[in-house]
Specification:
133 residues, 0% strand, 77% helix
């Protein structure tokens, strides 16, 4: 049970951003302010990167994982990209299953979302790690 508490603590910022998103969708914020999607994806990528890095550092401290700093950077950013892709897939599936919510605004929107996830992920890595490659 202790490990679950540690993981929840590590991922509290992405969970908070997800809850904010869930709160904002019914209010129509994303439709009213089209630009609002950009900072949300930046924050999402940033928070997920910081959380993945914290989790991987915890694993390193327990001697369950060892990797050079450059590989750690690539791995964290790759995990952010995977998370963003899974998020976009979930939006796509949501659009198929429901008619009341239009999460996908097209290919340009999807590519922009993924781009800002990655930018947020890179910033998140460096904010959390405070080391240069």
């Amino acid at each position: 049970m202790l490990i679950i508490k540690k993981i929840l603590k590590i991922f509290k910022l992405p969970i908070a951003i997800l809850l904010l998103h869930i709160f904002l969708v019914p209010l129509g914020i994303y439709e009213k302010y089209l630009w609002f999607d950009i900072p949300m994806h930046l924050l999402g990528g940033l928070s997920v990167a910081m959380s993945y890095l914290a989790l991987l550092k915890l694993m390193q401290s327990k001697k369950r994982l060892q990797m050079p700093e450059q590989i750690l950077f690539v791995f964290v950013v790759s995990l952010v990209a995977l998370t963003g892709i899974l998020w976009e897939f979930s939006e796509f599936i949501l659009d198929i299953l429901t008619t009341s919510i239009k999460a996908q605004q097209g290919l340009t929107d999807t590519m922009s979302d993924l781009f800002f996830n990655l930018i947020g992920g890179v910033f998140g890595y460096f904010l959390k790690n405070h080391k240069s490659l």
